Amino acid sequence: MTEERIRELLRDADRAAGPPSFGRVTADGIQRRIRRRRLVWIAAPVAAAAMVLLAFRLWGIDARNTPPAPEQRQQIASLEEQVERLQAQTDATLRLVQGVLAEQRQQQRLAALEAELASIPDPLAELEKQTDKTAFVLVYQADRLYRELNQTDSAVEAYEQVIRLFPQNQWAEVARKRLAEIKKQKIEESKTEGDSKCGLQNA
Amino acid sequence: MAAMAKISEEQVLAERFRRGENSAFDRIVERYAADVAALANRLLGWPQDVDDVVQDVFVAAFRGLRDFRGDCRLRTWLFTITVNCCRHYRRRYLRHARWIRRNENAPSLCLSEDAQIVAIDAERFSRVRQAVRALPTKYREVVVLRYLQGLETAEICRLLTITANALNVRLNRARERLKGDLNELLKEES
Question: Same structural domain for residues B62 and B28?
Fold first, then answer.
């Protein structure tokens, strides 16, 4: 049997078997397949871990259900006692820690409140500041009326308003001074007017 | 010259895929899917339905194509993946393959004269295929690649990462086994 005969036989047998069948392969299909496999690779270990945990839990329940021997019972009783003692110690420590933590939290809250209070300005001082500012603005406007615009009557009104509204303020004192000045000026003006009238009559 | 053009076209396709063009991969699949399916079918012992293996081969190709350096032809590279996938499949689905073998050996029904000739031929080829299936993996692979795929020695050596000497030894041994298995058939023929 020659190599050529083997080749022929194999090719005929292969031809007789017919072509294989397979589904359509696309890049998108391959990507979907890869994603699906990745999901399975993640899900499988998680499911296995869950099964193991469940088995342990069931085994634990089963072990608890079987009745122990007298020696074991004693051991279990002493162990349970130890566990209870440890549990009590743990509870006491836990309570202490919780108390300390609560106190710390309270102190922190107090400090925060104090800081907040310190940041709020004194309302009286603030009011005084605002009053002072308003009085100054009124006096300043009255000064402009009197000196720059020569509207003496309006200026007098504004000065009087300052004195009426803010009698204790420093700007009320300024307004009083200005009013006195205006009065003095008016008297002088009326004097000079009277003198000039008399001069004219004499002449 | 044609081979050179083919290689450069393969490299262009691989490069296009590396740049994220999925259509390049579709083109590669279109060109090589039939070859890959035929090889898988032969390596797995003609089960006919090789959809899973073909899908797995192209999944591996999709993952690895970005690292394909172009040291060999794309077809050789895909055949290497196919050989590895088939090894994996044979290990995994050995029972399934046995079931197929049993089914193929099932006794035939009563047939007419013409149909009997066809049936005799079918029986003959079935025995040939059976003989190939019975070969150990390393012999079956070289037989399929050399006689059915018609690959050159250098390409088979690269694909299976073996030396030319090892390939010749495997081919000789495979032939000896096939001769032993098909002896009766040849005597009947003569």
Answer: yes
A31 to B62: CB separation less than 8 angstroms, yes or no: yes
Chain B: residue whose CA lies nearest to A32: B59
Q: Tens place of pLDDT for every residue, chain B, 190 residues?
A: 455 555 577 778 888 887 878 888 888 888 899 999 999 999 988 887 888 889 999 999 988 888 887 778 888 999 999 999 998 888 877 655 555 555 554 444 344 555 555 666 677 788 888 889 889 999 999 999 999 999 999 999 998 999 999 999 999 999 999 888 887 776 766 5
Nearest Cβ partner for A21 among B48, B128, B178: B48
Q: Considering the domain boundaries, does residue B69 fall inside one?
A: yes
Query: Is the complex ipTM more than 0.85?
Result: no
Q: Give Cα separations from A22 to A36, A83, B52 (angstroms).
A: 20, 65, 8
Which pTM does this prediction carry? 0.54
**B144 shares its domain with B186:** yes
